[in-house]
Design a protein that fits this description.
39% of the residues lie in helices and 17% in strands. With 1221 residues, the protein is an alpha/beta fold. Among the domains are: 87 residues, no CATH class; 247 residues, ANL, N-terminal domain (Rossmann fold, 3-Layer(aba) Sandwich); 74 residues, 2-Layer Sandwich (GMP Synthetase, Chain A, domain 3); 234 residues, 3-Layer(aba) Sandwich (Rossmann fold). A 7-stranded mixed β-sheet has the order 6-5-7-8-9-10-11. A 7-stranded parallel β-sheet has the order 25-24-23-26-27-28-33, with helices on both faces. The protein has a 7-stranded parallel β-sheet with strand order 38-37-36-39-40-41-42, sandwiched between helices. Helix 17 crosses helix 20. It starts with a helix and ends in a 7-residue tail after the last strand.
Length: 1221
């Protein structure tokens, strides 16, 4: 109510000044901080200030303040009006303060004429009806008199209502509002929060909505017109300094040409208002023809008089020029917007006129560098220029006017917190003043002094090399980093160094000084000065620091948390609004999400999940790289991890869908999470603060060898910046990606609710330390009210579709080396792997169901890791020859191999600095994930096991990609299967699918038969990629005798005579006989019995004629012993056993073998078909033990059919070890 009363008083004060004939008024928003209010009053020098007793304390003590009461204004209507003073529409009406791109508020002097023209035009173009009721909050200063002048009531929306969608809708409905001005983002939040039926009910009386203040995107407007089709939507291009400029009826445009409208990225702004002048000019103030873009200049009666007491800025922004040679010069305002005029007179806006140059492959906004310099307290003025030839030694030089004693090094250190390294000027030159051209007030570049590189290089003596070693080092650094100067006390990584450049630097240092430094040395001694001391010590040129780390001190993590803590933020009102609308509608499903780390391994799959399984619009914060903009970098990353196809012609359907959805639902934002405002300019940052609905912060620099100081900026400062962003503008839930590394080694059963603060002294690796500090910052933000979910991840494995894996992953590198060198370490290591697509899916699901996890920590960590020795045994049993050796022997071999190629250095780098001994593996901590399992159960999901099927998928795909060495196949020489023709029924899933794949890999020609033709075709395509023989798919129902005969005919025609028949089609239902599930009885008999006889009948004649063949019937251990709950199924399998025994006797002399495979419980679809839950609950024991995989049965089938012709394997009973019959 306080804000509402303030609005009413503002209106009353304004009317009072108008009635009494007083001069201009200046509204002050009580939300301004005290120092800003004081600054405005000092600058504006008002004659007096009108306030209430309650708000008097917000004004400076020495201000001339008149304390008023609202009742006094009510009495004015009956009082005799004062004699008005003489004025016209050029007189100043009010001064409105508005913050620009620099963030410093500017007082805009607005004469009466701007409001008069705007009011008059809008009253005529969109006239009020007698029953109109207008609501107002946004742009209140400009809007408050518009309805009152026509006798229409104005309803003032309180500040605690305007940004609360639920309360706003209630306000509109209760007051039967008919028109209102919205910013697009405000209406979009409302659309995302309120369900459609309730929304339409609350907006039922609204006739006109006017958009202002932001660009209206076409997808957003389509939502508006679809959700609220009865409303007339108007787009108003309005600028504080120019009042209303252009306007268009969006509803009419959309209705007139829907196709043309939808082809646009942004909605049109229409034609300019009467008397408004628009000029499109280039940098030389030359007018551009229709259709040619340039900067937009605005003139006419609605123009502001200028900025209050800012003559320099007025000269820059308000210029005088001719619109045509025959016209008199008029004043125009330089908007900073980029656009062009259409032939029909419409104005098109393209964006902002930010200056952009390329330096060392990076895109640099020179104006952003200038703005950052100007934000420093030590800088009064500046100009930044680009020097050097294109494509050569190009660099930035800053001419700076300071307001006191400051060194260039101090200026650079302050800029590091605000700008990426490539935007920091190479040279800074101090001046007493910036020269300008007197006639135009523009920068006089010719008058700037010439820089002297040698003088500038030696201006800060503390930063120049002095010893011979320092000079040699500096020269090498400048070559590697492509810099023209080096401060010997600045870090290699602050100057743009990274892991790849580090390798180059270390090689160059080895060649120059004949000493071998490691990556760890580079991080412990990251400056030229420190490295010089290290090298001189190793060369015995000075006291040695080799072998100790006294120059590097482990950080105090508790102090680091306090140092980076953003501190208290008053967001009580925003929090109340957030929680009030928390349970209303599916507000996250169509919201705006801000994703960091999108170019990383997990980030790629988060993008895929968000696009395919939500309706969100995704903003990805992406750092630029040399000669690669943010969009291309993201695209390359998505291709690298298989989310997008590397070649469009080979795209899968999923990849095509992702590519199409990206066009309309994803945008990249160039920036850097580690610097102020995440590298965005102030306008973009503030826009994002209110645009974004929730955040996934996945960005982190992951390197297990780097110390804390090398990872602090991206991991700790980056998280600090994200938290500030989450609090600013509106409350944005934060989904924070943490790591299991916040726990030290050697712990058992670490839980999600463990207090990790007790481990701050036990963490020694830089990555663990930075992530621990960052997570503590998030926990502090949670205590202050920020909605937070923390996800601690374990080891991410490849996805289960294309098996794309992080190429730097330690587990992958270990397995890759095992297949390549055929040795592995004999260690006690439990391999923990979680498919990355599962992880991404869970995180995205929780973003859409925030109530499931808000405030919780979740361990997405596989709590059932598999022993590495088991993995190596699996490899040997699947054709990968691997020999285990003592860890020390294996380590020596890896060190030797690292000298052979750069590819082998990846694993050695981790072993050398991280996994240094066998004990490292045996002391890895174990974890619990009770919170996560509870959520998975609610979502109907289970955590994926590391089983034979998953390993097989991984190894097969990685072999095809050339990452693993191909396995030695079970070929014809060893199996007698090569070239055989095999029919397999029930081949679309389970055992039949596994048997088909095994035969294909063994070189057989396979006919896969089943009823699901689409599934068969998919499997055929998959198996053909890795096949020695041929494979075909034949749709077949084994209970249909004619279809079975056609199957055999098709097979013999395409592949040749049938050598092997595998009768695998079957069904199983748990039933109690007393429950009389007669339809299921009949189905089991039809498929399990008749299906077998139909298939045998179709192939037997051919086998007899060629006097060879093999019939494999997939029976069951239930064919050897009847099982309760499976009476009919057991009977059907007894039939198969009896049939097989008798048939075997009849055809043995004809060269035909008959084998029965008798598997126990197997992990297939059969276990899920039962409808008699009573029987299943009583007798299904498959969940009590580890059951068979389909591949286990397939290997038995290969064994039976690959024996010499004189050997008959009549029966194979294969069961889970713990469940024998």
């Amino acid at each position: 109510m306080r804000m509402l009363v303030t609005r009413i008083r503002t209106l009353s004060f304004n009317n009072h000044t108008r009635k009494t004939g007083c001069g201009a008024y200046l509204p002050l928003d009580i939300s301004y901080p005290e120092h800003l209010i004081k600054s405005i009053i000092e600058e504006a020098e008002p004659k007096c200030a009108l306030s209430t007793r309650q708000l008097r304390s917000r004004l400076p003590e020495d201000a001339d303040v008149i304390i008023v009461n609202i009742n006094e204004f009510i009495q004015l209507k009956d009082s005799k009006p004062l004699k008005p003073i003489s004025m016209d529409w050029n007189n100043l009406a009010y001064v409105a303060y508005s913050s620009g791109t620099t963030g410093k508020p500017k007082g805009i002097k607005c004469p009466h004429r701007g409001a008069v023209l705007s009011y008059t035009w809008r009253h005529k173009e969109f006239p009020y009806k007698p029953d109109d009721k207008e609501a107002c909050n946004v742009f209140f200063i400009w809007e408050m008199l518009r309805p009152l002048l026509k006798g229409i009531p104005m309803y003032i929306i309180p500040d605690n209502v305007i940004y609360d969608p639920i309360q706003l809708c209630k306000f509109l409905k209760n007051n039967q509002i008919t028109r209102m001005l919205f910013t697009p983002s405000l209406l979009e939040v409302t659309l995302n929060t309120i369900n459609l039926k309730h929304l339409q009910d609350c907006f039922s009386t609204v006739r006109i909505i006017i958009f202002c203040g932001e660009v209206v995107t076409t997808p957003f407007f389509k939502r508006c017109i679809a959700s609220l089709p009865h409303i007339q939507f108007v787009n108003l291009y309005s600028i504080s300094e120019c009042h209303d400029v252009a306007c268009v009826d969006l509803t009419q445009c959309y209705t007139h040409d829907k196709a043309a409208f939808e082809s646009r990225k942004f909605s049109p702004v229409g034609k300019h208002l009467p008397n408004v002048k628009i000029a499109i000019m280039n940098e030389n103030l030359e007018h551009q023809p229709v259709g040619v873009s340039g900067e937009i200049y605005i003139g006419g009666p609605s123009l502001a008089s200028g900025y209050l007491k800012m003559p320099k800025l007025n000269a820059e922004r308000f210029i005088k020029t001719k619109l045509s040679p025959s016209n008199q010069p008029i004043q125009l305002y330089r908007t900073g917007d980029w656009g062009y005029m259409l032939s029909n007179g419409d104005l098109e806006i393209c964006g902002r006129c930010d200056s952009m140059v390329k330096i060392r492959g990076y895109s640099v906004e020179v104006q952003a560098v200038e703005a950052s310099l100007m934000s420093l307290s030590s800088v009064n003025n500046c100009v930044v220029l680009v020097k050097g030839n294109e494509g050569e030694d190009k660099f930035l030089i800053a001419y700076v006017v300071t307001n006191g004693e400051v060194t260039r090094k101090e200026v650079r250190n302050q800029l590091k917190k605000k700008l990426p390294f490539y935007m920091i000027p190479s040279y800074i030159l101090f001046l007493e003043s910036i020269p300008v051209v007197p006639a135009s007030g523009k920068l006089d570049k010719k008058a700037l002094p010439e820089y002297n590189r040698q003088l500038l290089d030696t201006s800060d003596l503390s930063g120049i090399p002095t010893t011979d070693t320092e000079k040699k080092l500096a020269k090498i650094w400048m070559t590697v980093l492509q810099l023209s100067t080096i401060d010997i006390e600045e870090s290699f990584f602050d100057l743009g160094g990274h892991s790849l450049l580090a390798a180059t630097l270390l090689n160059d240092l080895k060649e120059e000084f004949k000493v071998e430094l490691t990556v760890k040395d580079l991080f412990l001694f990251p400056t030229v000065k420190q490295q010089a001391q290290l090298i001189e010590g190793r060369l015995n040129l000075s006291p040695s620091i080799d072998g100790d780390e006294q120059m590097y001190t482990q950080p105090n993590l508790l102090e680091e948390v306090e140092r980076h803590d953003p501190g208290f933020v008053n967001i009580d009102m925003s929090l109340r609004a957030f929680w009030r609308s928390f349970h209303v509608g599916n507000r996250w499903h169509k919201g705006r999400i801000f994703v960091t780390g999108a170019t990383g391994f997990l980030g790629a799959f988060l993008i895929q999940e968000l696009l395919l399984n939500t309706k969100t619009f995704i903003y990805c914060l992406v750092r630029e790289q040399p000669n690669m903009d943010s969009t291309k970098r993201l695209m390359d990353s998505l291709k690298k991890f298989g989310v997008l196809p590397k070649e469009a012609s080979k795209a899968t359907e999923k990849q095509k869908n992702v590519a199409n959805l990206m066009k309309s639902r994803l945008a990249t934002v160039k920036g850097d999470v580690a610097i102020a405002n995440m590298g965005m300019n102030m306008d973009d940052y503030l826009h994002m603060c209110t645009e974004i609905d929730f955040i996934i912060h996945a960005a982190a620099l992951v390197n297990l060898a780097y110390p804390y100081n090398a990872l602090e900026r991206p991991n700790v400062q980056g998280t600090h910046n994200i938290i500030v962003f989450a609090f600013t503008g509106k409350v944005k839930p934060l989904h924070y990606i943490s790591t299991d590394a916040v726990f030290p080694h050697g712990l058992q059963q670490c839980s999600e609710d463990s207090d990790i603060t007790i481990y701050h002294k036990q963490l020694t690796e830089g990555y663990s330390q930075t992530k621990w500090v960052a997570e503590q910052l998030v926990q502090k933000a949670k205590k202050r009210g920020l909605p937070v979910v923390i996800y601690r991840l374990g080891n991410l494995a490849g996805d289960r579709d294309n098996v794309c894996w992080n190429p730097q992953d330690f587990t992958l590198l270990m397995l890759q080396s095992a297949t390549k060198f055929q040795i592995a370490p004999d260690i006690d290591w439990r391999m923990e792997m979680t498919p990355v697509d599962f992880t991404a899916n869970i995180i995205v699901r929780i973003t859409q169901n925030l109530s499931l996890a808000v405030g919780k920590v979740l361990h997405i960590i596989n709590t059932r890791p598999v022993k590495s020795s088991w993995v190596f045994e699996w490899m040997n049993s699947h054709g990968y020859s691997v020999r285990t050796v003592p860890f020390e022997d294996w380590r020596d071999r890896m060190k030797l191999e690292s000298t052979m190629s750069n590819e082998n250095k990846k694993l050695w780098g981790l072993v050398e600095n991280y996994a240094i001994n066998a004990q490292f593996f045996s002391t890895l901590s174990t974890f619990r994930n009770c919170n996560l399992l509870e959520i998975l159960e609610k979502l109907g999901l289970t955590y994926p096991d590391i089983d034979s099927a998953l390993l097989k998928l991984y190894f097969d795909k990685l072999c095809r990609q050339g990452i693993f060495q191909r396995l030695s196949r079970m070929s014809a020489v060893n199996t007698n299967i090569h070239g055989k023709v095999v029919i397999i029924t029930g081949a679309s899933s389970g055992i039949g699918c596994a048997i088909a794949e095994a035969f294909v890999k063994a070189g057989a020609n396979v006919a896969m038969a089943a009823r699901r033709e689409d599934k068969l075709q998919e499997l055929c395509k998959k198996f053909s990629e890795d096949a020695q023989g041929h494979v075909i798919a034949v749709k077949t129902d084994v209970t249909n005798k004619q279809q079975v005969k056609e199957l055999v005919q098709h097979t013999e025609c395409s592949l040749g005579p049938v050598d092997i028949l595998v009768n695998c089609a079957g069904v199983m239902y748990y039933t109690l006989m007393r429950n009389l599930k007669e339809e299921e009885w009949e189905r089991m008999i039809d498929i399990n019995c008749k299906g077998v006889t139909n298939c045998i009948g179709a192939v037997l004649d051919g086998m007899i004629k060629k006097k060879s063949g093999h019939i494999v019937n997939i029976s069951s251990d239930a064919g050897r012993r009847g099982f309760a709950g499976l009476a009919v199924y057991s009977g059907s399998k007894f039939f198969v056993e009896g049939l097989s025994q008798a048939l075997r006797q009849e055809v043995a002399s004809l060269g035909i073998r008959v084998t029965c495979l008798q598997p126990g419980d197997v992990k297939t679809e059969l276990l899920n078909h039962t409808t008699d839950q009573e029987a299943k609950n009583l007798y299904d024991g498959s969940s009590n033990t580890k059951i068979l995989e389909p591949d286990d049965v397939a290997q038995a089938c290969i064994y039976a059919t690959s024996q010499p012709a004189y050997v008959a394997v009549n029966e194979i009973l294969i069961e889970p070890r713990e469940a024998p019959i």
